[in-house]
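Batch job 17 of 40 flagged for manual review because the log was empty.
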Amino acid sequence: MKFITDYLRLIVFCSGLLMGIQIPAVVDQYQKRVDAHLTEATDLLAGFQQTADRYFDGNMQALINHYEKSDDAIFRDDAVNIRFMSERVSALQAEMAALQRNLVLRASHVLFFANPKLLSETMQQYSYMILLDPFALIWGVVSAVSLAALLDGLIAGMGFCALRIIRRPRVENDS
């Protein structure tokens, strides 16, 4: 029976190691996706930014306001599109700024605060890999030890509860 629990621990540890190594890989692929979207959005906004630079001292909001106040319906409609692109660039820049911190903060950001659409795209296109860098190995070992300790704790807790139930004195009913 002991060899079964030893193998179970080994399997749990290896599974935790492989899952933990994926954390930096997911963060890396998410960051690359954000960067690609930011590059594309910035390129799409570039012409309007040049106009804002030329006529409004680089103030994109002033350009949008100008379009919104125009008598031309086409310009007013374009103001909605320009605002969308401008807000998207700002949001993606903020996302990239959050991903420029240390690995623990980046992983926390991706886990709890990531852009849901970009995270969904990342996971749909995710390709499992084993990164062989120090951070990935640390994540893997920490995950493996944590998962193994959690399993050991659960098994010990169940054993403790089972012993308490077995050793509980039985109360006889006198009625």
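Reviewer: the log was empty due to a logging misconfiguration, but the result itself is present. The CA atoms of residues 25 and 131 lie 7 Å apart. Unflagging and moving on to job 18.
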